[in-house]
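note to self: dont lose this again. the chain is below, predicted strucutre after it. 286 aa total, dont forget to put it in the shared folder this time
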Amino acid sequence: MYKRLRNQLTGILSPQAGRRGACSGVDHVPEFEPHRHIRLLTFNIQVGINTTSYRHYVTKSWQHVLPYRHRIANLDRIAGLLRNYDVVALQECDGGSLRSGYINQVQYLAEAAGIPYWYQQLNRNLGQFAQHSNGLLSRYRPLDVTEHRLPALIPGRGAIVARYGSEADPLVLVLMHLSLSKAAQQRQLGFIRELIAEYRHVVLMGDMNNHAEELLTRTPLRDSGLVPLPETGHSFPSWRPERDLDHILVSPTLEIRKSEVVSYPMSDHLPIAMDIALPEGYLETF
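---
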């Protein structure tokens, strides 16, 4: 279990702790099991802030820059949800700064949820004030994990690519947090489209800040053949979901067994979950 003694006091005494992107390593991570269905989840956790009203963007804005005594309790509740899934994409995590008590939230959630592999991508480094990050949690050992900076006028957006299974025909998961600007999204999705072009079995998951119809008809993903959640997959705002900004998009080769917006309002976004099965015969490719 992540040592809770790495709290605000420890952070103040050792402010350099946890300030870079990091990875758990794979020594104790089980091999990928291609015959099983895979439980996926994507969640924008808003650095552990529980937002339940638009006014909280003002009244709780200080929690984005300063420590908050209930943040660990919020993370523990989030971890309680995450332990039900195999691969988790996290957005708006803190990699270890003043506001998080110098705790790497990706690592904390992985260890609290009992998920052996974690990878933190540091996208925007504001020193001891904020370590804006994406995160990957996985119960299975990936073939490899790479991180990519996404093109944007203002730097600070990124994607994590994790490959599983067979080198010759892998399952490829791309975890991302896109910009708000539609122009930036066009460049970012063009970049991602090139990343996935050679693969048959692809999952895109994360906070894409756009609706599925727009993403799949008016961006470089329009010819990808990716399959979205149903149109009712609204995830934002968490207290009155009206917009589908968070997505899990999958190749048609992957069987969707279940997909849902999870009613778990611990952030300003709701998490999105999906169970997928690899295509028939995929086991024989190993």
